[in-house]
Amino acid sequence: MAKLTVAILGLDRLSVSIALRLRAYAAKGGKHEFELIGYDSRDDYEKPARKLKALDKVERKPYSAVASADLVIMNLPYEDLRAGYEAIASDLREGVVLLDTAVIKQPSEAWADQLLSAEQHWIGFTAVVNADYLLEPQLGPEYASDDYFQDSAIFLTPSVKSMKEAIDLAVNFSIILGGKPAFLDPAEHDSLSAITESLPQLLSVAAYSAAYRHSAWGDAKRLSNSPFGVQTRYLFTHHPDGLRDEWLANREVLGRAIDDVVDVLRDVRERLAANDESAIEAFLMGASDNYQEWINRRHKGDWDEHASQRVQLDTSIAGSLFGGAISKRLFGGDKDGR
């Protein structure tokens, strides 16, 4: 049995769910043990995470959290991400594997290439949540659960410099979390996240901006129920600096996604102006049917995956969290950490 020290930077629902899953894995007799060290500068996340006791320790400084870590989960808010890399780079040990959860990967890959050594291994890490939680927008650690990633995809975006052993570790870590690991190129990942992450953010802000600029906003703002709150929640859950930086870093593909939405809205507006009931009905029924097909497949995990995305698991690797050179560097033993 091997013991891995995991530093988790940023203690939101995703991060604490990782910690809870590792705790559950060890409690059920898993092959490996984990020492879990956390950090978050936000009191509304750090304090609840402490109360949950999912972590062995919560540090006050990011560099203190990573100093002894074999694996680092980089899950800081986007506006703090570059500074976070700069704060921890000199304190990371050789052989460390850093999993970056940022919505877009190419900027993080560039920062890692600039700031990390050849013996510190960056891999992009995007965990898709369990479909049972798909319609739950809460981000706080108090909503964390040990099955948050169960049977869902975890997309890994290795750097071209990533060692095979580091990738093996990321694959097997994903399996321990209950996920199904798959690979994406960082650029391809960012083009897809523009549609599923950045565009909803932008539409959220745009909806609020359109509402408060409306001449009737003075009265309408009192008539605000769940639909408006859910639609505009990104202004509550995300800092404007983080949204700005994400959108600008991914501006080309996000711009194309905006064009697609504008085309749809313009078409709907024309059909409404023409009082074209059949066209509006066809629009809604087409979207509804497609949505039902998507959400059913999302719950079943039934996808036609690209062959390049599927991970073919070697049983000797899948049976152990550690492989090759990284195992020997960290533990001085064989690939099972003995």
How would you describe this structure to a colleague?
The chain has 338 residues and is of the alpha/beta class. It has an 8-stranded mixed β-sheet, with helices on both faces. The longest helix has 28 residues.
Keywords:
338 residues, alpha/beta, Rossmann fold, 6-phosphogluconate dehydrogenase C-terminal fold, 2 domains, 8-stranded mixed β-sheet, 15 helices, globular, disordered C terminus
Can you summarize this structure?
By secondary structure, this protein is an alpha/beta fold. It has helices at 13-27, 43-52, 62-66, 78-88, 106-115, 164-176, 186-213, 217-220, 226-231, 234-237, 240-249, 251-273, 277-300, 315-318, 324-331, and strands at residues 2-9, 32-39, 57-59, 71-74, 97-100, 121-127, 153-158, 180-183.
Q: What is the CATH C-level name of the largest domain?
A: Alpha Beta
Count of helices? 15
Q: What general outline do the C-alpha atoms trace?
A: globular
- Give a short account of the largest sheet: 8 strands, mixed
Which percent range describes the beta-strand content? 5-15%
* Mean pLDDT level: 89
